[in-house]
Write a structure and sequence with these properties.
Elements: H1 3-40, E1 43-45, H2 46-53, H3 57-65, E2 72-74, E3 77-81, H4 82-91, H5 97-117
Antiparallel strand pairs: 1-3, 2-3
Helix pairs in contact: 2-3
Length: 123
């Protein structure tokens, strides 16, 4: 076997299958990401939207009438984008107790500094 034949055999039998598999995996990963993007942009009707955020239908309608959740359509024929509902759910996240306590401490310290910086009025 000459040198070129050995290199060709090496590339076709060992390297090519590995590269093909890597390309297939990468294409599949991107197709999966594309599918997720499409799912996030899909519209849900009111019932589906309420179920998605974990609300009763009437509670969901209450939130939409207060403007807490943006909708498309009007009246009882409303729709929401799944991606917007996900963003709304993220905003509803509560802070852990430690974070709240830290914010309170910072606020109180800043208030104390403000009081100490104010000059006292003399008569």
């Amino acid at each position: 076997m000459d040198r070129n034949q050995v290199i060709n055999d090496f590339l076709t039998t060992l390297i090519a299958p590995v590269v093909k598999e890597a390309v297939r995996e990468e294409l599949a990963r991107h197709a999966h990401l594309s599918d997720n993007q499409n799912l996030e942009d899909e519209f849900l009707n009111a019932k589906e939207s309420a179920e998605f955020i974990g609300d009763a239908l009437q509670t969901f309608y209450g939130r939409t009438s207060k403007g807490e959740i943006s909708t498309y359509g009007s009246g009882k024929r409303i729709f929401c984008k799944k991606s917007e509902l996900m963003a709304w759910k993220e905003k509803q996240r509560t802070k852990p107790k430690e974070a709240v306590e830290q914010e309170v401490d910072s606020y109180l310290v800043s208030k104390r500094r403000t009081k100490q910086q104010k000059p006292s009025k003399s008569r």
